[in-house]
Amino acid sequence: MDSAKEIARDMLEAVNINGDGFLGAVGKGLISLPVSLGYMGYDFIDTGHRRENQNDKFRMARLVEKGIFSRDIIGKIISICLEDFVSRINMEKTGSIVKNVSGDLAGRMAFAELTGVKLGEVLVSRGLAAFFAGSFAGLLLSVGAETSCAIYTSRFLKDRNPVLHDKLKAQGDLDLLYFLVEDIVRPFERACIVADRNSAEFDRICEYFFGGL
Which run of H or of E encompasses 72? Predict the structure, then answer.
């Protein structure tokens, strides 16, 4: 299992806090094509799920008709995905960590005023910035490739994290758009898995994430 520092580093990179947003976006854009085409090929040979895949394609078509690619929708997906992480943060402990971190006094005081809800909004804002700093090149691929990627990423999410999958699906089939933000939110999901097993290790992740590596 990854260390607390490694998970925290992945979380920081996911929301571009490390300042490498441009290069990270370029890298993600470069891998969009082979990943999507790989899913399309798997869709073709996955005869055991043909009917299920067809139903999911109809769901995706309805999303496209609604005009899904908006800032509000992406923000909503990221928010739902980060809810679990934010709910686990011990604000008292985190606040004490920030007080001991050298840096801008005004920034530390502002953090001290944050509630869990406000902290969630800040993280969603960072996630949105990371998403829109990235490349939409993947969305310009064939609809077949992206639809297959959406379907199988949703299915893998259902197996891995059924609670999150069902939350997204209940909000209007947003589980099919999870693939768009997976790179941003997945490190936070990993942190929640750690929290289930070892709360002290989760606190260390928060220490590195909020206080610095």
Answer: helix 71-88
